[in-house]
Amino acid sequence: MIAIIAKRVDDGTADTSEISELARAAGYTVAGEVTQKRREDPALEIGEGKAEEMADLVVEADADAVIFDNRLDPYQTFNLGKKLPEGVEVIDRFTLILDIFGQRAQTRKAQLQVELAELRYELPRAEAKASLAKREERPGFMGLGEYDESREEDIKKQISRIKDELDRIADTEEQRREQRRESGFDLVALAGYTNAGKSTLMRRLAADVDVDENEDLHPDLDTTAESEDRLFTTLGTTTRKLDFDRRDVLLTDTVGFISDLPHWLVESFKSTLDEVYRADLVLLVVDVSDPVEEIREKLVTSHDTLYERNEAPIVTVLNKIDTVDDEELAEKREALSALAPNPIAVSGKEGRNVEDLLARIDDELPDWERERLVLPMTEDTMSVVSWIHDNARVNDVTYGDEDVVVDFEARPAIVEQSRARAGDLSRPVESA
Question: Residue 199, annotated ligand binder?
Answer without folding.
Answer: yes
